[in-house]
Design a protein that fits this description.
8-stranded mixed barrel; globular; 4 helices
């Protein structure tokens, strides 16, 4: 009986420690998985297989072969000032892709568009996906890294809009290419909804 009580006590202490450091644990494992995905993508691999612990901690989604990056991954988004280094998936946007990284909105979105929209979560935990995007500032650099090149963009605007304001996605022929990064803002605990969208606009300067 005494052994059972001690074992239960140790398990409760362990559980408390895990809960206390859960966000740090998730951030660490997410960074490790991101590094593996990005390294595999740059090496020309098609799939990355996660182990059960990585899948459980990060919430990443995979099929029997793992996470497909050969067909689904468009590149890597890097914002050094906001500690963001994320896989970018082709559209259409889905919860699975938002669990694994950030994503284009539509299946027709591509890197030849004038206005390239990329959406990502902010609610995955500290340091995950677009959680730290508000650390970026106008004038900061964004790199979009593909297997063939690195395109450099400069942040020109950061502002909030209502979810219904889709004009930020308009394509303007003749204008320089830009990224439009989109994430949720202003969570209302009464409605359980995010009532605003944070928009980050960045114009191409090299690539």
């Amino acid at each position: 009986m005494r052994v059972l009580v001690r074992t239960a006590g140790v398990l409760m202490i362990f559980a408390a420690i895990v809960l206390f450091f859960w966000q740090d644990i998730r951030e660490y494992f997410t960074d490790q998985v991101n590094d593996r995905l990005i390294t595999a993508y740059q090496a020309g691999d098609d799939d990355v297989k996660l182990n059960p612990i990585e899948t459980f901690v990060t919430g990443a989604r995979q099929d029997t072969k793992g996470i497909n990056i050969g067909d689904d991954m468009a590149g890597v988004l890097e914002i050094a000032s906001a500690d963001i280094l994320e896989p970018v998936y082709m559209g259409p946007l889905s919860e699975e892709k938002l669990r694994n990284g950030v994503s284009f909105l539509e299946d027709t979105d591509n890197l030849d568009m004038q206005n390239i929209p990329i959406a990502g979560h902010r609610v995955e935990g500290a340091g995950i996906r677009f959680n730290y995007i508000d650390r970026a500032s106008v004038g900061d650099e964004i790199n979009f890294i593909t297997r063939d090149e690195t395109r450099v963009y400069e942040i020109t605007e950061m502002f909030e809009v209502d979810p219904s304001e889709v004009g930020v996605l308009d394509q303007t022929a003749g204008d320089p290419q830009e990224l439009t990064l989109i994430t949720c803002e202003e969570y209302n605990p009464e409605t359980l909804l995010f009532e605003k969208r944070l928009i980050v606009k960045a114009e191409i300067v090299e690539g």
